[in-house]
Specification:
The chain is built from three helices and no strands. With 86 residues, it is mostly helical. Helix 1 packs antiparallel against helix 2.
């Protein structure tokens, strides 16, 4: 293993730990997205481009978009509850 791959694996561990301790949902989504992108780079280093493309498309793309939409709906529901309580 070369130094680049070791740094990528350390970054994956850092992302996994930091998403667990993050209090802000938006930060958690961004950390998850960066985790998926680094994982796709690791798949490329392991000479598996089909998995790299899938990880980038599904992990960083589709799943992150679904998380962003869900976060927006959660915040809209919170605002709606605040308006009802007034």
């Amino acid at each position: 293993m070369n130094l680049f791959e070791i740094l990528l694996f350390l970054f994956l561990i850092l992302c996994a730990v930091s998403v667990s301790f993050s209090k802000n949902l938006l930060n958690s989504i961004l950390i998850y997205m960066s985790f998926s992108l680094v994982m796709s780079i690791i798949w490329l280093c392991l000479e598996s481009p089909d998995l790299a493309i899938t990880e980038a498309a599904v992990g960083a793309g589709v799943t992150s978009i679904l998380f962003f939409v869900t976060l927006k709906k959660i915040r809209a529901m919170k605002e709606e509850r605040k308006d009802e309580s007034k």
